[in-house]
Amino acid sequence: MRCLFAASLVVATLAGHVYGHRHTAPSPYDDGPVKRRKTLGFGPDHPHAVFYSSPYQIQTNGFTPSDSSMCPIEVAHLFIKDVLQKKATHYKIRKDSYTDKNTGVTHVYVRQVVNGLEVADGDMNINVKDGVVLSYGNSFYNGPAPVPFTNPDVAFVRNPHREACDFVATMLKPQEFQGNGDQVVLGSEHVISDELSHIHNTHCGSEVPCVSSEDPTDFRPALLKFMATATPDSKLAADIANDSEKYLSKITVEPTSHFAPSGSEAAVEFVAGNVPDAINPVKARLAYNQVLNAKGDSTDLHLVWKFEVEMQDNWYETSVSASYPYNIISVVDWASDSPIPKPAPPPISATYNVFAWGINDPERGERSITKENFDTLASPAGWHAMPVANDPSFRGSRSTSKGFWSNSTTTWGNNVFAQENWEGMNSFIDNYRPDGGKSKAFNYAYHPKITDKADALEEAKKYINTTVAQLFYTTNLVHDLYYRYGFDEVSGNFQQYNFGRGGEENDAVIANAQDGSGYNNANFMTPPDGQNGRMRMYLWNTALPYRDGDLEAGIVIHELSHGLSTRLTGGPANSGCLGWGESGGMGEGWGDFLATTIRSNKNYSDYAMGAWAANRESGIRNYIYSLDESVNPSTYKTLDKPGYWGVHAIGEVWAEMLWVVSQELIKKHGYSDDLFPPAPHTDGTIPIGDFYRVTEFGRPLVPKHGNSLMLQLVVNAMKLQACRPTFFQARDAIIQADQILTGGENFCELWQGFAKRGMGPDAKVEGQTPWGGGIRTNGFTVPMACRDYLDKH
């Protein structure tokens, strides 16, 4: 078996240098070079992918609005058939489709199915309201279907586990399906109510699309190929190459079974144990992936194994071809980093002693005693309670109640588990966290002293109570803020218990303070809805005493915003839409923009990212965020410059654009000193106050001020945009979000903001590549309809 890996490892080494960085220090706490985790992120181009938000584009094929009383799912079915133009293409509507409670827009997520298998990157998102398709994105494969794999003699020829083969044989028995045009559906009246009950329409029918399965082959060589490429341990990679049979024989394979399979659960799936360098069993399933053909003008389908691989520093979703030489076709790392800075030249509400909301870091203000923000809409049970059944650690020791609720007096609650992680491992339940006692008073000192570098780490550890309490406080406030702008249960937010409001549960954020796996960084891992997000915050050895990233709110907000953008783009069950190139860059840019927006105030200022932690006035980006082009000259064309292929550099440009656009809205609508909407009434209704505009009853809530309105548009647009969006598609989604929310009253201001940074309607890119390459042309004009208007305003 060693011949399978010898040649491929040469490519893997190159990929490691191109797409990631190997560990350079044996320990994060020595005086060697700063440790940087290795990460991979790449995938094929989709030249045929589109996002249409114009009614003229949507009605090109004669599709007309339906009856406003029609179920949005049925509207989507009709529209898909129209788009496919009677092609023999199967699909399934994913159960993470949902209706936005504020805008009334139903976001329908569709996955293509070929030969009974999902096309992993064949996505369609359709935005429907009142029977009208407002916009849609489409990356469906449009070529001929490949010949199905039908040779059972090849299946698992090297797999010693007969039960896996028997399971496959059972799954491959003919199944009875009901055909309905171009879709494959399974009739079941209770399935629609159980899995799509969050679609707000009483006219939905009983047919829910599903898929069948195909013969698999032994996935272990493909998995080993990926592990040899992904591992940061060069010795392990070499050992896998030299003696792969040893590792193959140790991998255990178990089929997964479901009592009532639906959606992707109907496909043949396996769980692999004893996988080298994986910290949990690996999920595996067969699928197709699109690969660019030799001419570069269309895609072909390749049979692949889809793996979900959780490692110490990474959580990968990857596609590896199912046959030799097991090419790695795409990789998305659900973990997102903050970049290492450039070297400097030469039921009782808890209380917390913290840097309060709006104070970005210790240089911007003093700590104060702040009460638990008891938002009855976003966190109905407060920050320290969850049902016993949802508490992953319930032993009785953390609870003052043995009834339904587990009430914690530590930094352990429904939205976040915050604790130290000095050893840098993935365990968290029994890690240390401060205990506020019966009064839940988290009041701890913070007076770090200047020490020798050898003692700096121990000095920082003395204040772990302070830093964990701060991390718990900031993370909960971000949860509540984003909830109020629409990042709720059905759209995939992070909660252990969802209060019966839909979505997948048991996925609170695991927030590790002073993580021992690195320095001068932070990262966030975002698996699909129903699996815990994981945030790791590090110490920064850029000054004495060491600076603690947990105390810089902008870094924490940036990381949590990865969870927001990943769960909203492409739907909560799809974490692979922001992996690389412009889409991956925007994942970083949204984090910077939101962190900057949250810390800003009415008196305009420029802002740097990570300035305090990095001990650099200019922060960790190429430029600080500014309206002054002499301070920040970034435009769309900037992405063509050397050094702008990475997602953080791409993200800087996107964040700068959003910052400029937001100032246009602030100029028009003014500024809200508080981004939090008013607390709900006891009956759950939201008061208008001075926060929302007065609108007709039943209309969406529209933030009144420019900064709060921009935040709402950004969140709404994430729900509208296509999977793997480009800058153009994300821009168009923001403009459409305004059309839906306000009737388009800010159309010209939005275009003017984008045009100031080269993203006007005349902007273009030629030869665009999936990792962000291409030749761009700035567009500084605005639509003709806006020119007279802007001259007058």
From TrEMBL:
Domain of life: Eukaryota
Any Pfam family hit: Peptidase_M36
Keyword Secreted listed: yes
Domain FTP stretches: 95-140
Active site positions: E559
Gene Ontology terms, MF aspect: metalloendopeptidase activity; zinc ion binding
Residues that bind Zn(2+): D337, H558, H562, E588
Cofactor: Zn(2+)
UniProt xrefs under InterPro entries: FTP_domain, Fungal_virulence_M36, Peptidase_M36, Peptidase_M4/M1_CTD_sf
The EC number(s) this enzyme carries: 3.4.24.-
Localization annotation: Secreted
A biological-process GO annotation: proteolysis
Gene Ontology, cellular component aspect: extracellular space
Signal peptide positions on this chain: 1-20
Swiss-Prot/TrEMBL keywords: Hydrolase, Metal-binding, Metalloprotease, Protease, Secreted, Signal, Zinc, Zymogen
CDD domains for the chain: M36 (cd09596)
UniProt keyword Magnesium, yes or no: no
Protein name, UniProt field: Extracellular metalloproteinase
Organism: Laccaria amethystina LaAM-08-1
Lineage: Eukaryota, Fungi, Dikarya, Basidiomycota, Agaricomycotina
